[in-house]
Specification:
The termini are far apart. The chain has one domain. Helix content is 66%, strand content 0%. The chain is globular. It has helices spanning 14-40, 44-54, 61-83, 93-117, 120-124, 126-132, 156-166, 172-200, 202-210, 225-233. It is built from 10 helices and no strands. The chain is mainly α. The longest helix is centred in the C-terminal third of the chain and has 29 residues, at 172-200.
């Protein structure tokens, strides 16, 4: 006697539909969890605690943070790729040319910002380690760079990342992951802006008024310093 292993919903494709939705929800949830952890580990609360706990070894925290971020990202990418294989978006010749131009442009912008406009060694965590080994420690004056891409957009690397992500969209899973990461970049940028205002004060507020945050060649949104201070106090 044959035993049915499926349900009566299988005949209508409903069971597969629900399974597919759960798969996308699970991947979105895992990516969201990664984003939350990634942001939490570099938050003021955690970094201040690490500075107190690690003392002079705190100089190694940034490179540890980068290593953890990359280490978790590799299995997450592998899990995502294995979760979906159905291509739903194909590009014709014209769109492919546009797509590759945008990919090359965003990659060039990212690398230019990383190596020219920012201190790449500090971003990775190497600069902090080198400075910790100096016998005489100096505190250089804090300045806001406004040259190069930073005179056009305050966060060129984030803008380039968003463009690059959406140029790699072929599957439903790509749309799910890119949506999660785009939301995270936007929220993370706002949180980073608040930290920069706390660090640089009115100097950064004026920079916000002069240069747009994520959309180059657009008018920067003027912010009243009093309103911004109120928002910071709610952190």
């Amino acid at each position: 006697m044959a035993v049915a292993t499926g349900t009566w919903l299988d005949g209508f494709g409903i069971s597969n539909y629900k399974t597919g939705k759960m798969k996308y929800f699970l991947v979105a949830l895992v990516w969201a969890g990664y984003c939350v952890l990634h942001s939490y580990l570099i938050s003021n609360r955690v970094t201040n605690l690490m500075a107190l706990a690690l003392k002079r070894y705190y100089a190694y925290y940034r490179i540890f943070y980068v290593a953890i971020s990359i280490g978790l990202l590799i299995p997450l990418l592998n899990f995502t790729v294995r979760s979906d294989s159905n291509v739903i978006i194909t590009y014709g010749l014209t769109l492919n040319i546009v797509r590759y131009v945008l990919i090359l442009g965003s990659a060039a912008m990212f690398l230019w910002a990383f190596f020219i406009d920012y201190d790449s060694l500090s971003f990775i965590g190497i600069r902090q380690i080198l400075n910790s080994r100096k016998t005489v420690h100096t505190n250089p004056p804090k300045e806001i760079k406004k040259g190069g891409l930073l005179g056009i957009i305050r966060h060129p690397m984030y803008f380039a990342l968003i463009i690059f992500l959406w140029c790699q969209t072929f599957k439903v899973m790509d749309i799910v992951v890119n949506t999660v990461l785009t939301v995270y970049v936007f929220i993370g940028t706002i949180l980073e802006e608040r930290k920069l205002v706390l660090e640089f004060g009115d100097t950064y507020i004026r920079y916000q008024q002069e240069v747009p945050m994520l959309l180059p060649f657009t008018k920067a949104k003027n912010r009243n310093s009093k309103d911004l201070t109120k928002s910071i106090n709610h952190l």
